[in-house]
Amino acid sequence: ETGVTQSPTHLIKTRGQQVTLRCSSQSGHNTVSWYQQALGQGPQFIFQYYREEENGRGNFPPRFSGLQFPNYSSELNVNALELDDSALYLCASSPPGQGAFGANVLTFGAGSRLTVL
Amino acid sequence: AQSVTQLGSHVSVSEGALVLLRCNYSSSVPPYLFWYVQYPNQGLQLLLKYTSAATLVKGINGFEAEFKKSETSFHLTKPSAHMSDAAEYFCAVRGLVDNQFYFGTGTSLTVIP
Questions:
Q1: A73 bridge partner residues
Q2: I need a surface site. Which of A59, B30, B39, B75 has the fewest CB within 10 A?
């Protein structure tokens, strides 16, 4: 079975630009969540998608938005990039379980490292 | 919101020595608790999880953790460190109300040959 794949692996943007990060969930997983991991920090929950709808959100502003597609893949969009948005963005998928919130399993991708100049 | 605190951002042990990484959680009820490992330039990999079954949880690569409600702790141990254990370790809790995962700030483990 394939794991969680993310693209691109690295990218550089300038302040004010917009970025789209992509994630393909592990086979059989229907819940996708996104995390921001700043340098030297633990992952911070951004939001989660189930059945193509956002069903949980962390303390991130509206310029962080996302999508989930019928094949359970997902996108993270960040508008009006700021220097503090520089981080590793991790996507994680979960198999069905506990209703809309997925089972107690997170399978992570290797991440997309975003640098904002 | 629930949270976890990892004591010690850096831990160094000699190869073959005991590994002890500390994690305390804040919760009024026993939560779901996890330990993840992150190798350089990789995502997080689940080591083990506690979901209110046995309090001593065994994971991969010889790691185990014990849930102690009285101490609100979930420390990670391994009897004998191996060079390949050098990595960043994260403790995490899953909130019972919001179902979100909350991660600690991580502990970087160095293994000295």
A1: none
A2: A59
Mean of the pLDDT values across residues A23-48?
Answer: 93
Tokens 């997170």 found at: A106
pLDDT digits (tens, 9 = 90+) for B53-106: 788 999 999 999 999 988 999 999 999 999 999 999 999 998 777 778 899 999
pLDDT attached to residue A99 = 54
B104 shares contact with chain A (CB less than 8 Å): yes
The structure tokens listed for B108 are 């970087």
Which positions in chain A touch B49 (Cβ < 8 Å)? 104
Binary contact (B46, A106; C-beta < 8 A): yes
Minimum-distance CB partner of B44 among A45, A48, A108: A108
Q: Do A45 and B101 touch (CB under 8 A)?
A: yes
Residue B18 phi/psi, 5-degree rounding, is -70, 140
**How is residue A53 written in tokens?**
């709808």
Q: Which of A113, A60, A49 shows the shortest CA–CA distance to A86?
A: A113
The string of pLDDT tens digits covering residues B44-55 is 999 999 887 788
Q: To the nearest whole angstrom, how far is the Cα of B33 from the nearest Cα of chain A?
A: 9
Mean predicted lDDT score pLDDT of chain B: 91
Quick one: pLDDT at residue A18?
A: 98
